[in-house]
Specification:
By secondary structure, the protein is α+β, with helices and mostly antiparallel strands. The chain has one domain: Endonuclease/exonuclease/phosphatase (Deoxyribonuclease I, Chain A, 4-Layer Sandwich). Helix content is 20%, strand content 31%. It has 5 helices and 14 strands. The protein has a 6-stranded mixed β-sheet. A hairpin with a 2-residue loop joins β10 and β11. It is globular. The chain starts with a helix and ends in a 24-residue tail after the last strand. The relative contact order is 0.12. Keywords: Hydrolase, Magnesium, Manganese, Metal-binding. InterPro entries: AP_endonuc_1 (IPR004808), Endo/exonu/phosph_ase_sf (IPR036691), Endo/exonuclease/phosphatase (IPR005135).
Length: 241
Amino acid sequence: SVERRQILLNFCRDGNLDIVGLQEVAFHSCPIIESCYHLLANVGPNKNGTAILINHGLEYSRLLLEPDGRLISIDVKCFTFINIYAPSGKQAKNERNTFLRQTVPAYSVTARLPFVLMGDFNCVDDIQDRANTQSLPIPSNVVSYALKEMVTGFDLVDIWKKLNHSEPGHTFHYHSGSSRLDRIYRIYASQSFADKFLNISLQSLSISDHQSVQTTLTCNLDHPNRSRSSAGLWKLNTLIF
């Protein structure tokens, strides 16, 4: 509705947010939001859409869209931002595993810059990221090994755990517990990127049943784009398949 989109815009402006990743997006354009942000939407056929909002003061390039709408990637300054919405629910476990093991890596390996991976992963890679409020034991199979493999394979750094060691950071609360489904990762690069992320926090948004995850990062605008070497034999990266 118009009211919900206005609430979203106010939330982004009040938080002074420059880049915003949205999930479950069902619209291609919105004049209300586009008055302040570039709206780049990837609307899938089954309400799987993702979008990235970029402040009008920032330039972007290399927009990539996954056909099902579950992933959108954009280059802004010295980072590639990849926003995802993974399949949800027990019945979609195989689909989610394929998405995390194949789809996300296929887009990630094309990044020319250090990338920031963010969004709703709809799973956890640590048993501490899920809690029950009814004093019930947490089943051992809640950990997604597909997510763990992706994090390990790309040497990703969990920004929440890096900056908030003592807070659980659960973003989705339901009648019997809570989970940390929404995450921000950065790819491990050189030591020069170790301190780019200054803080991270959760903020409630009235039109969503998930809390938003917000982080502040710095970017060296003089950081050169990584380019392919012109020397040697070019080889296709088979991970793309």
